[in-house]
Specification:
Blueprint (H helix, E strand, L loop, with lengths): L1 E6 L17 H9 L4 E3 L5 H11 L5 E3 L4 E5 L11 E3 L2 E5 L4 H12 L4 E3 L5 H8 L3 H7 L6 E5 L5 H10 L2 E5 L4 E5 L4 H15 L5 E7 L5 H4 L4 E4 L16 E2 L4 H17 L12
Parallel strand pairs: 1-2, 1-11, 11-12, 12-13
Antiparallel strand pairs: 3-4, 4-6, 5-6, 7-8, 8-10, 9-10
Length: 281
């Protein structure tokens, strides 16, 4: 059996308020010991993900900006993952629109609606909204595929999305921001592509996929995996979601991530079959 784990960051592996993953270290050690690819799937940028990968000693592919781009490092397991663009040490599969095109559209609708994106905010403003140190904010502003934004009146979102669809764009909702993204991207599309690539590079082993998330923009990812894991959100609890084999973590953030992933891996080690429910309380 070959296991792949796909995980959201903010509110899932990383706590919503302090961005800590400390409580998830026991499960992270299990993953590392079992040589399981841990594939980050996030609204964050490549610049934000790379330091975290180094910190956690992760060498797996990663998905950034809500599925806008998939970055494949060189890997003996994935010899020829995709016919993507060579960017530095990666093969990159871009699924989204370019940031330049997104900002061009954003500027047009911003003249009609009260919305502000990362491209309109100072580093201090973004730091205040996210709780990130300003040095990390600079990494968050190096966008390639999407624009996070806030709307003064959230009733305008439906109107903006209708205009976005005409330009090949759409809107998704994360934990803190709305995100303007390409029509041909979301976390689910990117996750499916990665799963297919692992299958094409694999042998006859059964491939079992786990996905962990907490927000609306994680739903497409959770719908693509064998074992979806939902993390409760601070003050708001769980998203409304019903899927086969859905596991609801008991705690928020990295503590819930740790207990749910640890339980699932213990069950898989005991001979779990994909058509059975994981008995995690």
């Amino acid at each position: 059996m070959r296991i792949l784990i796909f995980t959201d960051l903010d509110g899932s592996l990383l706590n919503h308020d302090d961005y800590s993953y400390e409580a998830a270290l026991p499960a992270l050690e299990k993953i590392k010991a079992a040589n399981i690819p841990l594939i980050i799937v996030t609204s964050k940028t490549r610049g934000e993900v790379e330091p975290l990968q180094r910190e956690l000693d992760i060498s797996a592919p990663f998905i950034v900006e809500n599925g806008g781009g998939i970055f494949f490092p060189e890997s003996p397991e994935l010899k020829n993952p995709v016919d993507g663009e060579k960017v530095e040490k990666y093969t990159v599969l871009g699924l989204g629109a370019t940031y330049r095109d997104i900002r061009k559209f954003f500027a047009k609708v911003a003249s009609r609606f009260s919305i502000r994106g990362f491209g309109d905010m100072t580093a201090a403003e973004i730091a205040n909204l996210t709780g990130l140190p300003e040095i990390d904010v600079e990494l968050a502003r190096r966008r390639e595929f999407t624009e996070p934004f806030l709307a003064e009146n959230e009733l305008d979102i439906g109107k903006i999305e209708k205009l976005a669809l005409l330009e090949g764009l759409k809107i998704t909702k994360g934990g803190r921001f709305f995100h303007l993204i390409g029509l041909g991207q979301d976390k689910g599309i990117a996750v499916k592509k990665v799963i297919d690539i692992y299958r094409n590079n694999g042998n006859q082993e059964t491939l079992v996929t786990i996905g962990i998330g907490d927000s609306e923009n994680d739903l497409p990812m959770l719908q693509q995996v064998d074992i979806p894991v939902l993390i409760p959100r601070p003050q708001r609890g769980f998203l409304h979601l019903e899927l086969p084999r859905l596991v609801r973590a008991r705690e928020e953030g990295c503590l819930g991530w740790n207990s749910a992933v640890g339980c699932i891996l213990d069950n898989l080690a005991g001979g779990y079959l994909p058509d059975k429910v994981i008995p995690c309380p």
